[in-house]
């Protein structure tokens, strides 16, 4: 039976559901928005009503200073009935705290909007849950065969070995403030590193929010105003933008590191003057993208915000109908 997908329409500013006059992750303020997760390329303020998980709404409240107006909390597995006979169910995406895929159902048809997702275990968020569907809308941030992420335990071991080899210095790790920083810290704790970890001021509030949501990050200390001798031999976590700015010069001869899937590309590491590239990503790599499409087994795959061409080619070679969506406003935010 042919699919009738007139009720979901990709537009430059997001996915639009005409019967419900609702949008998913819109790039501009709208009357009704369903938000997959709290990264700013998906979550924006100013909507008339924002429907998301409680953690995503809390993250939006922290980032924008106030809770989104008309906020409606949806738990994982909970469904919301929208106008026009559309039902939306939020399912874990495994990307960051509160991140969700959104299963849309209408007239027996099922469309899954993944937002951003990963398949690797992450102690700071609920794991990705595959959902069978007719249309699977997937990201393709790392949609090239070159991107195959190593086990995170190996990258954490490299970080700790570097720290142990240079006790008179510190290791300054650039990591995105939402999701990546907290995962990095939690993985360090899981590897047995229980020493204090120092934070750039821009990291403190989000780490505090994760703790409020029950994520144990161990002892964290602000790096500001601390003598160099106290930070020597420790790990400092900062936004990627702070790796080479004036703030970092106050640290004891820092070894610069960066946690990102893009660190697979050596040129990116050189451009940022990164001495210790850590290939740690909160997105699915090539093998995980293709394996997920095969597992979900949709009648159609829609590919967005990433390297669509290679994934389109893979779908064609495997006799899987697919199309690329021309949507704007989605960036990797240093992964």
TrEMBL record:
InterPro entries: MBL, Metallo-B-lactamas, RibonucZ/Hydroxyglut_hydro, Xnuc_lig_assoc. Residues 34-168 form the Metallo-beta-lactamase domain. Signal peptide: none annotated. PANTHER family: BLL1145 PROTEIN, CLEAVAGE AND POLYADENYLATION SPECIFICITY FACTOR FAMILY MEMBER. Its EC number is 3.1.-.-. Keywords: Exonuclease, Hydrolase, Ligase, Nuclease. This is Ligase-associated DNA damage response exonuclease. The keyword Transmembrane helix does not apply. The keyword RNA-binding does not apply. One of its GO terms (molecular function) is exonuclease activity. It holds the Pfam family Lactamase_B.
